[in-house]
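Input record (one chain):
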Amino acid sequence: MPAAFEKQSYWHDRFASETSFEWLTSSAAFMDVLTPYLQHIPNSAQILHLGSGTSDLQNHLRRWGFLNVTNIDYEPLALERGQQLESNQFGDVRTKYLVVDATRLELEEKFQVAIDKSTADAIACGEEDAVSSMAKGIWRCLDDDGFWFSLSYSAWRFEHVQDLFEVEVISKVPTPRQKPTDPDIFHYCYLLRPRRQFPGQVCRGAQTSS
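The corresponding structure, as predicted from the sequence alone:
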């Protein structure tokens, strides 16, 4: 049976023992793809890291000088793991961690950048319109000139959200081959820019974690 990635119970059980894991590629490799875009963003920018899980992406962002990073996950254990990873690396915790469902985003801040590392893939395992719900929430919470980076195994992940976003594949990340005869398989790094022909909405009321 496939893993129940759409269920909170799956992640609670998984994070009970898992302390660190990177989906699709390392955070360092992901940051290499994002470098041409992030290097033009001021360190004061608000960044939303969706489905932070047990990734160390927040550490890489902090190392770049980005401290206004909000890491969200709907499983509290994930936030505990993230805080521990940050504390282990820097000796303290300076980025923000919130218990939030990425398909029901209601945040007070407006963000310059949203980033997810295969979170949209996990959400796609749930209800049929789950990725659309995620996209609508991100669209509401992004600045007019903001953008969303998403790393996905799917070449068609965002074909149904192009009414909200201009969608561009900025990198195809090759997966390691086990044998020379194996076919080429890629992961896709997307850049999504919000279209603004729709009336904007202010996001409200996030539940915070300690």
